[in-house]
Amino acid sequence: MRTIPLMSGSPVRNGFISFLIACSLAVVAAAADAPPGRVILGDQPWYTADDGAIAREIASPRNSRLRSLSIADIRIPSGTVIEEHHHIGMEEVYWIAAGAGIMNIEGVSYEVWQGDAVVIRSHERHLITNPFAEELRLHVYCNPPWAPEALHFEPLPEDERAGPPLQPRVFSLAEQAWSGLDAGVQRRWMAAPENTPLAQLAVAEWLLDPQGVYQAKPGPLVEDVYFVLEGTLIVEVGDGSFTFKPLEAAVLAPGQTHRIRNGGSTALRLHHYANRPQ
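RE: above sequence
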């Protein structure tokens, strides 16, 4: 079969390019007005790992439209030791939601307590143990998303090891300052490029007064997730308005312009997760 070359400036070529542009704009417009995805934490199944950790997903590519992030809720019973491992090409943050534990990264141990965030870089060997009587509860954030094939247990050659140890390594939420974004809206970083050596992953706690409203215009590839801790969150996308209750996650499409507001009469507290592609 003969093919007809599409020369620059030809009606066929120009018509085809116009068609592709129109299709692309239609996809972008549809995504711009798409309702946020909803993940209800209570509906997510728990699974138990071989080392005794018990986990469920807050949001990930497996239960939402996310592509570049994963957020997990993990329980570590008293006396449990998570086997040492590392990841390649992944940024990871452990945030201690309740209890306490011992984090070991590249042979250095750190006591971690409720409210602490621990930053783990690619290639860094790490493990966490719970030697205390109380259950340890943590949220684990990964960019790119966690997957079974991302777990590596074999020793790393010396020339593939991570660089010099980070100092500091553990970041206490109580020591992070609140900053006002808009009237009635405050944010403090849990772990982000602003307060840690992270390159792309950003995790923050937000507090909105009953009249608090924030307009977000993320970059074209940025994925946003809001996880409600207390109060009622309203996410506005286009002409739509969507309500989220505690322990529900709102997952936005990449680069989606949106507005968040407090939908109740008491303070709204939430966690916000985002990636920031370089």
